[in-house]
Amino acid sequence: MTINKKEIEYIAQLAHLKFSPREVEAFTSDLNDILSYIDKLNQVDTIGVEPMNHAMDMTNAFREDVVTPSLTNEASLANAPETHGGSFQVPKIIE
Q: Domain map of the chain by residue range?
């Protein structure tokens, strides 16, 4: 499968992009190189190969979920410029 200049110009028009003739030529060449590489990948025998979501075997580095005490309401509001009813008070921004 190959892409020609007219297709690049059509796609650019759909995306409301303007390219110079030199850019159209470069995109045509680049996209054809990409499609050529995909064709090579499609020729590889993958029967018996399990799909994977990452090229390297990775495991999550999560820490164990341990319950710890949190700040009290008074401690969290200690540095608040203004409070009201146990909450932060902020200026009204919606009229």
A: 5-42
The pTM for the full model equals 0.51
Question: Topology of 5-42 in CATH?
Answer: Histone, subunit A (1.10.20)
Helix (H) or strand (E) holding 60: none
Please state the three-class secondary structure of 15-75 as a single string. Answer: CCCCCCHHHHHHHHHHHHHHHHHHHHHHCCCCCCCCCCCCCCCCCCCCCCCCCCCCCCHHH
Q: Flag whether pLDDT at 88 surpasses 90.
A: yes
Task: Provide the mean pLDDT of the chain.
Answer: 91
Query: Distance (Å, rounded) from C-alpha 28 to C-alpha 41?
Result: 20
> Which residue in this structure is represented by tokens 């018996």?
48
Residue 20 has pLDDT above 80, yes or no: yes
